[in-house]
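ok new one. same drill as before - structure tokens go in, u give me an amino acid for every spot. 87 of them this time. try not to just spam alanines like last time pls lmao
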């Protein structure tokens, strides 16, 4: 099983990256299904949308920068894992 997972790591990591991208970008589905209750169902994207609607543009942009930093960091990490090869 370990050999199969090692051979399929490119596809596995690609699927994880695609899933992460879908999860991090979903604002509408979070609002529809989870709502935006502070402390219970609020996530980063719904908080950004709420702050934007309230007119707090600086806080909304700051949350967006944090979200982008986390997203870029994880993508770099996944890219490192995918590109790493044992000889």
């Amino acid at each position: 099983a370990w050999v199969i997972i090692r051979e399929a790591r490119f596809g596995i990591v690609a699927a994880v990256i695609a899933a992460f991208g879908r999860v991090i970008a979903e604002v509408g589905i979070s609002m529809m299904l989870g709502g935006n209750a502070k402390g219970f169902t609020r996530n980063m994207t719904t908080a950004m949308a709420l702050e934007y609607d309230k007119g707090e543009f600086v806080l909304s942009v700051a949350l967006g920068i944090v979200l982008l930093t986390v997203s870029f960091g994880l993508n770099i990490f996944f890219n490192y894992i995918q590109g790493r090869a044992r000889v």
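The mean pLDDT is 81. and btw The CA atoms of residues 11 and 82 lie 9 Å apart.
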